Structures are given as structure tokens and as C-alpha cells.
Amino acid sequence: MGPRHGASSDRVSGWLWEVKDPKDVERVLTARLTRGDGLPGFGHQIYKSGDPRADCLLDMIMAFGRDSPFLEVIPELRAQGQALFGLSPNIDFALASAQRTFNFPQDAGKVLFCTGRMVGWIAHALEQYETNAQIRPRATYIGDRPR
């Protein structure tokens, strides 16, 4: 896990705090666009037409975050992210939104991301032990090998 995968919700939280009210959304996003800044939390390399994980989590946030004023901001952020950047929210936006809606601690997005991945990581490790083969290798290991 690093700044591009899992910890990206921190970058989303960084700009998200500039948005206090639905009326702030267009100004904040337009300023990012004008500066040539990206929009962390929007767009995904695999989910080109929208991240289903984000959609599911955002629906749950909208259903259970009844007392949070941030709920008024989420639909406008989704609409303006699409209108100005042509991008849909991804899981990092949804995690940062959960953090903001429910007043979770600062690093909650990363923790929630990792918690959701743990079962998969453990399953991969068990499968690798069982088959004695690396799963989904994407690079060549060049370090010392055990003898």
C-alpha cells in the first residue's frame, strides 16, 4: 500500500476539506482544473465508466449518514467531478467521504482500505503457500533468495 493505492484517500481528504457547503464545490473544482491539478478520488484505471465499489459505499454513506451536513455536498461533488473533469468517483473518494461524514480519525481511509483487502491478502498468501508459486507477479525479484 502506498500513495497511489490505498493511501490515496489522504490526498482526497486534503482537498475535500476546502468544501464546506454544496456552493463551494464548483469553485474548488474549477480552481483545481484551472491550476492543472488532478482530482484525486475521481477516475480509475480499470473502472473507466465508474468504480462500483465507490458507488456502493457512497450509497451506504447516503443511507446511514443522516446527521452529517456533508451529505448535501456528495451529490454535487459527483456531478461536478463528471462535468468538469469527465470522471466518476473512485473508492478513495468514497473512503474520504466516509471519513468526513462519520467524523472518523485522520487516517481512517487507509485503515478501511487495508481492512477490506486483508481477507484477499491472506487468501493469496495461503494459496501461494499451498501451490508454492507466486500469484500475479508483476515484477522480477532481484534480491537474495533463501537457500
From TrEMBL:
GO terms for cellular component: cytosol. Pfam families: Citrate_synt. Pathway: Carbohydrate metabolism; tricarboxylic acid cycle; isocitrate from oxaloacetate: step 1/2. Its EC number is 2.3.3.16. GO terms for molecular function: citrate synthase activity. PROSITE patterns: CITRATE_SYNTHASE (PS00480). Keywords: Transferase. GO terms for biological process: carbohydrate metabolic process; tricarboxylic acid cycle. InterPro entries: Citrate_synth-like_lrg_a-sub (IPR016142), Citrate_synth-like_sm_a-sub (IPR016143), Citrate_synthase (IPR002020), Citrate_synthase_AS (IPR019810), Citrate_synthase_sf (IPR036969). Belongs to the citrate synthase family. This is citrate synthase (unknown stereospecificity). It comes from Roseibium hamelinense. The lineage of its organism: Bacteria, Pseudomonadati, Pseudomonadota, Alphaproteobacteria, Hyphomicrobiales.
